[in-house]
Design goal:
297 residues, seven-stranded mixed sheet, elongated, binds flavin-adenine dinucleotide
């Protein structure tokens, strides 16, 4: 069967794109590996109407609603390769079969790499997070850490001061200059230069142990992860990339079309600021863009 639209990645951005296209009575296939980026968090915050729900519960509802349309198809597997054909695109699946579609929406998210500090990965999505708008309120009112990784860390510490009492950890690698230090002081942000040797968390508390053996008790800590594509499909298709704040992102126009005609991209892989709401918005635009291009080219 030739699908009108194939969506690779069936999480917040992908299902949002798929919903627009399937409601236009088009044949839409969603291929999804079932590993959304926020799977480490018990609750998702800041998405209108779903604040505080489990991420998987939001996705389960979205999948069920999409699957109820007669022209909807869902494949729970991984897309491994993609290539352009005369009629559109062919996607190889990990079981050995392949599917074809006239338009392609890529919504496969990003992969996070955290600094190598023992305990950090285990606390990811619990007491260690990347986004104050997602988790700041829950950490708020107490002591909050910000791990310095680059020049943006001062900016983040200044911002996070709205959510609690902030300590910027230089981790033995970052030292604010005089101007930055004065800005931090004005916002009541403390600075700890010593390297972190480990972090441990339980019951909403995070204990940071420094290289000199002293400890700091926090409600949580913000850490900027380095992001990368979860798979090489956008690259295989020849999509252009640009530098994002945390890693490369696929370049898209205002209708979410990539540099390759007929290939759309949305969600974390196609923008620097990451949230469920923004992924859903980008996905909706990609779905509309892909659908309209079937008619108007
Ligand atoms: C720990 C943590 C907590 C977060 N908490 C919040 C929060 O509270 N509120 C909020 O708004 N945002 C939160 N976020 C951000 C949010 O998770 C992302 O912005 C959002 O998931 C992006 O949606 P997406 O659809 O672009 O990608 P994802 O949700 O990451 O989904 C990508 C999908 O593509 C699939 N996929 C990947 N490769 C393939 C392939 N080759 N073939 C088939 N499928 C594939 C994956 O399995 C996955 O299902 C959090 C992020 C993290 C890391």
């Amino acid at each position: 069967m030739q699908y009108d639209v194939i969506v690779v990645g069936g999480s917040f951005a992908g299902l949002s794109a798929a919903l627009q296209a399937v409601r236009a009575r088009r044949k839409v296939l969603v291929i999804d590996g079932g590993q959304p980026r926020n799977r480490f968090a018990e609750h998702s915050h800041g998405f209108l109407g779903h604040d505080g729900r489990a991420p998987q519960a939001i996705l389960d509802d979205a999948r069920r609603q999409f699957a109820a349309y007669p022209t909807a198809g869902l494949a729970t597997c991984l897309a491994t390769d993609a290539r352009a054909t005369d009629d559109g695109f062919e996607i190889a699946l990990d079981g050995g079969s392949s599917v074809s579609g006239s338009r392609l929406v890529l919504a496969t998210g990003v992969h996070d790499t955290l600094p190598q500090i023992p305990g950090l990965q285990e606390q990811w999505g619990k007491t260690v997070a990347h986004c104050p708008y997602c988790h700041g309120y829950e950490f708020g009112g107490g002591a909050i850490g910000v791990l310095a990784q680059d020049a943006m860390s001062t900016h983040k510490a200044l911002l996070v001061a709205d959510w609690g009492t902030v300590m910027l950890f230089g981790n033995g690698a970052f030292m604010p200059d005089d101007e930055q230090m004065s800005l931090l002081q004005k916002r009541g942000v403390g600075f700890e230069p010593t390297a972190l040797s480990k972090v441990q968390g339980s019951d909403g508390e995070l204990t940071v142990t420094l290289a000199d053996g002293t400890t700091r008790a926090l409600k949580g800590m913000f850490v900027a992860s380095q992001t990368a594509m979860t798979n090489p499909i956008a690259e295989q298709l020849g999509c252009a990339f640009e530098d994002g704040m945390f890693g490369p992102v696929v370049k898209v126009d205002d209708r979410q079309q990539t540099s390759v005609k007929g290939v759309y991209a949305a969600g974390d892989m196609a923008r620097s600021m990451h949230s469920v709401a923004l992924a859903v918005a980008g996905g909706a635009m990609a779905g509309v863009g892909a659908h309209q291009s079937l008619i108007f080219g």
